[in-house]
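Action item from last week, closing it out:
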Amino acid sequence: MKAGFLEVERRALAEVWARKKLAVTLLAGNAGLAAAAYAWLWVPDETVIEVALSALLALAVVFAAVWLNGAVLAAFHAVTGPLPLRLALRRLPRFLLWVLVVAAVTVAAVWLAGSAGKVTQYLASFLTLRLRRPVSPERVGWLYGSLLRGAWCAVVLALLPLASQAAGGGFGAHAALKTIARPRYWVACALLALAGLYVPGKLVSWAPEFGALSFQAGSMGLRLGLAYLLAMTAWLTLAAVIGRMGREESKS
C-alpha cells in the first residue's frame, strides 16, 4: 500500500518522538562535542607535550562524534530500544569507512569551491564566445556554486543508507541500495534538507537591524538554539526514515 503525502515523514517523526531519551542524548552530546571542539581551539601548542595533548583531544572529539552519530543511525534499525552504543562501537570500523568516504567527498567539494574563480572565469568566457553574447561571471559563479552544493548534498545523502547499514546491520547492503533507489527517499531527503539545512541557515544569517545590543545578542542566541534544534530534529528524522525504509526493503 502506497504511503500518503508526508506519511513517511510523519511516521519517522513519531519514532523520534517515541525516543525522547535518544533525542536528548543527541542534542546534549553534539552540543558538548561542539563545545569541546571550540575549547580545542584554545589549547596551547607551544611545546611537544601541548601539541600531543591537542592532537589527542582532537582525536577524542572526532571519535566521540563518529560513535554517537553512528549509534543514532543504528538505533532506528529496530522499532524500539535504547541507544545501541555497544553495537555502534563494535561496528565502528565498518561505519568509519563510510565516514572517511563522506569526508573525502567534502574535501573534494571544498577544493572545487576554492577553484570557483578560475572555473567561472573560464566558463563565462567560453559561453560568451559560443553564445555571442556577454555572460556574467557572477551569474556563472552562482550557478557553479549551486550545482556544487547540490551535487555534494546528493552524494552524501546517497551514501547515508550504506553508512547506516554499516553502523547497525539491521538490514543488508542490498536493502540499503534499494532504499537509495526509492524516489520517496529523495523526497524525504529534500524536505528534511529544507528543514534541517536551509531554514537553520537562514535563521543564523538573518540579523535584525533594530534594537539594543542586548536585544541583538539575545536574538542571536535564540536563533542559534532554534537552528540547532531544527538541524538535530531533521537529522534524527532522516535516520528514522533510513531505518524504516531499510527494514521495509529487507522484508520485500
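Closing note: Residues 7-251 form one domain.
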